[in-house]
Each structure stands twice: as structure tokens, then as C-alpha cells.
Amino acid sequence: STLCWMKAGLPADAWRRPDTQLYVFEAEVFGE
Fold it and tell me: What pTM, to 2 d.p., does this model score?
């Protein structure tokens, strides 16, 4: 719920909707 609302700007219950698609990714961030 928090991820939908705070990060994606969606309603908190968006993940429960049958037409919602969630994508998972990882990133390695480099910096000096």
C-alpha cells in the first residue's frame, strides 16, 4: 500500500486491482 501511494502516486489499494501489473527491478549505482 505504501509503495503504491508514496512511490508511484497511485491509490493505496492499486495493487489489489486485477488489471494492475507490477514490475520488479534492481540497480547497482556507482559514484565517486
Answer: 0.44
